User: Fold MetQ/NlpA family ABC transporter substrate-binding protein from Bradyrhizobium cytisi.
Amino acid sequence: MSFRSALILSTVLAAWSAAASAETIKIGVTPGPHAQIFEAVKPVAARQGLDIQLIEFSDYVVPNAALDAGDIQANSFQNQPYLDNQKADRGYRIESVGLTVNFPIGVYSKKHKAFADIPDGGKMSIPNDPTNGGRVLLLLRDKGVIKLKDGTGFKPTVLDVTENPKKLKFIEVDAAQAPRALDDVDAAAINTNYATQAGLDPVKDPILREDPKGPYVNLIAVRSADKDKPWVKILVDSYHTPEVKEFILTKFKGAVLPSW
Assistant:
């Protein structure tokens, strides 16, 4: 056998061996930025022997149920307050293993160019889950629109509103349906991933936008039983690379912020 043939055979065998030994995991993501970012993570992880398959979920409820049931090995779509709430309500044995990105939530309107233009008694939709709905109420409080009871923490509800000078009517909708509510309300609070899906610009279009602070950094979650497995470290390290950070900054231009 010639040296060239031996070299080719050696390369083929090495590639086959790497493919054969690669570990495959399924990761649940929501469509939009989370899925797009993990497409950038996949080749980084593959170089370390981890094959990532993405499973897209259209809402915020099913990914944790699927993870807890073992249908997927990890998910990337939520922040810590949301995860804590899900664990308290449903008893899931899953936990965070690494931080990812922050999506400042925005308030959008098709009818008004500024939040001040919303008339007294105007309708405003907010997400119906405690974490994201609470985020919006905190945003409104921080902007001086409403006042909340003391000690409400990170998950206030409309029942915690103590002052509402504009007499806004809050309509709670599923987060995924928020863009559709825009035609029927004066303003709608929409999570960044659903805003981008609807063709909205999360930097330029909101009439109010959350400051990128607080506990709302998103995370990678796995089952508690898996947290110390070698693939988890590879997964997190692959996400936390300059290559992925550069992709986020270039692709989303400030709508999504690296937070590790």
Q: What stands out?
A: The CA atoms of residues 144 and 204 lie 21 Å apart. Residues 12-20 have pLDDT under 50 and may be disordered.
